[in-house]
Structure formats: C-alpha cells, structure tokens
C-alpha cells in the first residue's frame, strides 16, 4: 500500500482504520499524526511524522495477533491502561494458560478529560470499554454488589499481544500525550466565544471576541432564515472566525457550548447531513487562516454573556 498524498487519500485511510479499530491495539495513538494532518482546512500536509506512523502501522498490521472468540461461560479478563491524553483497553480470554485478545478499545481524551485524576481516567476507560463491549458481558441486565466485581492486580503477562498492549504506554506514547497536554495549556492572545440560538421567533447568534489588549467586541446577529440549533451554532462559529480575521488575529482559542460542533471540528464526530458537511468544511477553511487555533467545549452556564446575546438575537426583530 502506497503512502497517501491527497486529502481524499488520508480521509480514506482514517475511515478504514476507524472500521478496523477493534483489531488494532491503541489505534487512536497510532492514527494521531493522520488526524493532525486533516485538521487544517481542506489541504493536507503529509509530513515525516505521518510517514513514520504509516510505515509503523503497516508493520503492526502485518504481524498483528488474531482475535479470539470467547466461549460461553468462560472468564474474561480486561486490561485497562491510561496516559495523559488517551485511554485504552483490551478484552482477553485464557486458553491453555495463554491469554488471547478478543477486542481492543481506545479513546482520545477531550481537553476537560485530560484534567481528570488517574482514577477518573481509569473509570472512563472502563466506561468506554463497557459501552463498546456490551455484547460480550452486558447482554442482560445485571446488578452489582460488593461481591460481584473482582479486581486483580497485574501479575505476569501470559501473552505477547497483551504485553505489547501494555508496553505501548511507555515513554514514546506518553511523550506524545505530554506534548498534547502542553499544547492545551497554551494561553492564546485572542479568544472567541460563540453561541447559536433557534426558537419559534427566529434564530441568531452571539459572538464575543477578546483581544490581546483586553478589549471586547460583542455582536448579536439575527438570521433572516430559519436555522436549526446546530446550524445556528455553526453560523455563530463562522461569523466569529470572520470577525477575528477582520480584526487581524493570527491565533484564536474558541469556546462553544455546542458538543456537536466542537467534536465535528475536532474530528471526534462525523458530519453526515449535507448542510453540516458544508458548514464543517467552511469552518475548517476559516480555521486554516490562523497560525494556531484551539476549540473547547464549555457548559452553557459558564458562558452566560454569549448565550444572552444569542437569545436576544433570536427573539428580537431588527436588532
């Protein structure tokens, strides 16, 4: 398989890897360079990190252990592992003293999740695994008591596949995670807060831009068309990015209470509706004009000013 060169090639690669994630240990970390290459606008930069990750991925797939099928009634084992920016798990079964993998899960932590304590990250890893592995051990309603769950500390590892899974959380991957966390700690000179609102009276957006000098630019925008909630949130983001561009911002940190918009921009969610795809492409094109950007999901109650502007715009005529 030749290395991807175009945007379509990289999108096809990440799509295939998403389908194969259950077969690949720590697939999120392995694919991290590809997602970074897709982040900026419509173009794609296939750099040295992408090529190294691609070759390493091909080597891994060429010798990846076969997944095993569990037998009815047998005891299954789950290994959980967390780092500063990812969580992963592997479900295994034991046969003749050898542990064989059944299913891998992995998750890239969102900004708020990177601030979890180790115990909270471990709980999140278990929740993520439980949701994805429901057919294996949650096919029926179950009740937990203090005697239903048994915790075993890790002893000797009896299978190379599981050993490889654990080993992948040593220094190289932790260093990548540490770099991601350090990037999240960066203080941006320009900040953009956006919110969209749609109701029976109409739809609109609230935009607040904070400049490096401490000034604030506030906008309440009423749309002359009926927009859904998600469309209003995208319109707010796009309008805010245009304002930042006009003001001369070269970097921007964006705060939005829309989980859908934030996660689609971060490539955590996939845009399926045609209008959402168009909005997402435009938003990424605008983000590509900045040297650096970061988008963060915030609860609505933590951004009352922008929320009030959006509601004012959607409920008022001719602001």
What's the short version?
The chain is α/β, with parallel strands linked by helices. 42% of the residues lie in helices and 20% in strands.
Describe the 3D structure.
This protein has eleven helices and eight strands. It has helices at about 5-20, 25-40, 50-65, 120-130, 135, 160-165, 170-185, 230-245, 260-265, 275-285, 305-315, and strands spanning about 75-80, 85-95, 100-110, 190-200, 200-210, 215-220, 250-255, 290-295. The strands form two sheets. Strands 6-5-4-7-8 form a five-stranded mixed β-sheet. The longest helix is centred in the C-terminal third of the chain and has 18 residues, at about 230-245. The protein is elongated and about 65 Å long. The termini are far apart. GO terms for molecular function: nucleic acid binding; RNA-DNA hybrid ribonuclease activity. InterPro entries: DNA/RNA_pol_sf, Rev_trsase/Diguanyl_cyclase, RNaseH-like_sf, RNaseH_domain, RNaseH_sf, RT_RNaseH_2. Pfam families: RT_RNaseH_2, RVT_3. This is RNase H type-1 domain-containing protein.
Percent range for β-strand residues: 15-25%
Work out the count of structural domains. 3
- Structure summary, number of beta strands: 8
CATH superfamily of the largest domain: Ribonuclease H-like superfamily/Ribonuclease H
Q: Report how far the terminal alpha carbons are from each other.
A: 57 Å
> H/E element string?
HHHEEEHHHHEEEHEHHEH
Q: Examine the coordinates and then state which fold CATH places here, giving the name of the CATH topology of the largest domain.
A: Nucleotidyltransferase, domain 5
Q: Which outline best applies? A: elongated
Strand numbers in spatial order across the main sheet: 6-5-4-7-8
- CATH architecture group name of the largest domain: 2-Layer Sandwich
List the uncertain runs.
Answer: 169-177
Q: Treating each run of at least 4 consecutive H or I residues as one helix, how many helices?
A: 11
Organism: Acer saccharum (Sugar maple)
Protein name: RNase H type-1 domain-containing protein
GO molecular function: nucleic acid binding; RNA-DNA hybrid ribonuclease activity
InterPro entries: DNA/RNA_pol_sf, Rev_trsase/Diguanyl_cyclase, RNaseH-like_sf, RNaseH_domain, RNaseH_sf, RT_RNaseH_2
